Amino acid sequence: MYVIGLTGGIASGKSTVSSMLAKLGAYIIDTDKIAREVVMPKQPALLAIMAHFGDEIMLPDGNVNRKMLGNIIFQNPKERSCLEKMIHPYIEAQVDNCIKKAEQLGHRTVVIDIPLLFEAGWQSKVDEIWVVYVDPSVQLSRLISRNQLTNKEAMDRLNAQLNITEKAKRSHLVIDNTLDVENTKQQVITAWLNVREKMNNVMA
Asked: Which CATH superfamily includes the segment(s) 2-199?
């Protein structure tokens, strides 16, 4: 199994690239989706979060108040690290299960869509790292607009992640999402076709 780690900064357009890859036939493992699932009501990770952060971070329907929790962890690196230690083992276990499922279905390549690939130390779990890059100023404005955040709230979230320029330096491939969607799409198509060709050569 050939594993591609797709990462990027918040509001860089990683989800857009992930959707493009899915349309091209890529098997996508969405760690954001998994992260939401592992903190659903009655899940062990949620119980640990409640025990640490208290009932005040819970909504009446039993779900986590993500905005409140976000404000806590993005202003306090220790609390953020604590949260990550609580949920990352559950996320990793689910990702491993998804890779096994992909193998059973006959896929030779999977794409793990993971925002915090570098921060979580997942470099060794993937064969290739693709970073979706966007100019930092564009990233900030997109984040403020998309999430309806203040400038400070947006900066707190950006500062909680490895700088997107540094991520680009550490990757095998950079997909520049600064320009229009069509430009990004062409980069994605080329990258995916190159992977398909590589895998076909391996099987030949």
From this structure: P-loop containing nucleotide triphosphate hydrolases (3.40.50.300)
Q: Is the pTM of this model over 0.85?
A: yes
Q: What is the pLDDT along the chain (204 residues), one digit of tens a residue?
A: 999 999 998 899 999 999 999 999 999 999 999 999 999 988 999 999 999 999 899 999 999 999 899 889 988 989 999 999 999 999 999 999 999 999 999 999 999 999 999 999 999 999 999 999 999 888 899 999 998 899 998 998 888 889 999 999 999 999 999 989 999 999 999 999 999 998 888 765
Helix, strand, coil share of the chain (percent; to 5): 60, 15, 30
Domain ranges of the chain: 2-199
Identify the CA nearest to 57 among candidates 67, 43, 48. 67
Residue list for the binding site for ATP? 11-16
Q: Alpha-carbon distance 2 to 198, whole Å? A: 10
Binding residues: 11-16
